[in-house]
């Protein structure tokens, strides 16, 4: 069995468990069960430095996210502020979130996109201080990601979801808060792509920081009356069918390995007047 076949089998098993959960009558328990299917897989298969849980994200000034289906955080450096049936984690230690939907209708996609935008607004952009044996440097953390995963479509199509995403992106305005990836098991994925006409190249655009930098550069050139970039950002559809989950897991790893986080300053959560600790590496 090849790795592609293995992931196709895993996807089939997940969809089977999803259908089994339909036997549960209570919607809350049903939704929780479907989130646990994905949490269990990620907990077992992501590198150990990545923690996986559900709960809420908290900022130093007391702002809190919505109840997040799946949070992926720095399991090495991020303290868990509260641990129970759901967890509460400091924003600085969180890589990103995944919103899980049973049936990904337009309404459910819009709900997930709005939750992701609100979560991303909480991310701090202030510099962190890192000290080595030779020098002290300032580090700006990576912007977090937001992914929408559905177990099935809701009488719609990947093409209609693409249109929904385009509309939602226009409504959101700020590229900082866009959704990074959309996945529907057994159907396929939607993601952004960057086409560089001058270089004759195109590549996946999964990273929030890269996305923001491209847009800000284009805006700066327009403001300075400079020639426009010979490039295009667009949403592409991958109708991957039973290879969908394997690609989703691969893209998730790509996003995670590119990111750098600050170690949360726990003292600042307890008392904002406490001095900032300089991290030594």
Number of strands: 13
Based on CA inertia axes, which overall geometry fits? globular
Q: Which oligomerization state do the chains in this entry correspond to?
A: single chain
* Continuous helix count: 7
Return residue spans where pLDDT drops below 50 for at least 5 consecutive residues.
none
Gyration radius over CA: 20 Å
The chain-level structural class is alpha/beta
How would you describe this protein?
It is a single chain. The chain has seven helices and 13 strands. The protein is of the alpha/beta class. Helix 1 runs antiparallel to helix 2 (27-45) and helix 3 (106-121) packs parallel to helix 4 (158-172). It is globular, with a radius of gyration of 20 Å. The mean pLDDT is 87.
Short key terms for the protein model shown above:
alpha/beta; 13 strands; 7 helices; 10-stranded mixed sheet; single chain; 281 residues
What is the compact description of this entry?
The protein has 281 residues and is α/β, with parallel strands linked by helices.
Give the helix/strand layout.
Blueprint: H1 3-21, H2 27-45, E1 50-58, E2 68-74, E3 82-83, E4 87-90, E5 94-104, H3 106-121, E6 128-131, E7 136-139, E8 145-153, H4 158-172, E9 181-184, E10 188-196, E11 201-205, H5 208-223, E12 231-238, H6 244-258, H7 266-270, E13 279-280
Parallel strand pairs: 1-4, 5-8, 6-13, 8-9
Antiparallel strand pairs: 1-2, 2-5, 3-4, 6-7, 9-10, 10-11, 10-12
Helix pairs in contact: 1-2, 3-4
């Amino acid at each position: 069995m090849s790795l592609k076949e293995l992931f196709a089998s895993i996807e089939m098993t997940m969809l089977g468990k999803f259908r089994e959960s339909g036997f549960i009558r209570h919607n809350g328990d049903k939704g929780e069960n479907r989130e646990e299917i994905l949490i269990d897989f990620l907990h077992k298969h992501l590198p150990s430095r990545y923690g996986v849980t559900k709960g809420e994200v908290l900022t130093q000034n007391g702002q809190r996210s919505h109840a997040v289906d799946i949070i992926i955080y720095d399991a090495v450096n991020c303290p868990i502020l509260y641990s129970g049936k759901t967890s509460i984690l400091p924003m600085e230690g969180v890589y990103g979130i995944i919103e899980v939907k049973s049936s990904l209708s337009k309404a459910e996609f819009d709900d997930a996109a709005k939750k992701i935008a609100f979560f991303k607004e909480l991310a701090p952009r202030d510099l962190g201080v890192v000290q080595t044996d030779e020098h002290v440097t300032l580090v700006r953390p990576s912007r977090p990601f937001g992914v929408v995963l559905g177990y099935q479509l809701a009488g719609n199509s990947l093409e209609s979801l693409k249109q929904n995403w385009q509309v939602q992106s226009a409504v959101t305005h700020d590229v900082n808060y866009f959704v990074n990836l959309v996945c529907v098991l057994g159907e396929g994925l939607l993601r952004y792509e960057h086409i560089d006409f001058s270089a004759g190249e195109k590549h996946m655009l999964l990273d929030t920081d890269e996305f923001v930098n491209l847009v800000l550069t284009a805006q700066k050139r327009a403001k300075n009356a400079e020639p426009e970039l010979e490039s295009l950002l667009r949403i592409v559809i991958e109708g991957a069918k039973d290879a969908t989950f394997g690609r989703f897991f691969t893209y998730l790893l790509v996003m995670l390995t590119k990111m750098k986080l600050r170690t949360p300053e726990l003292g600042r959560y307890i008392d904002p007047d406490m001095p900032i600790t300089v991290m030594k590496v």
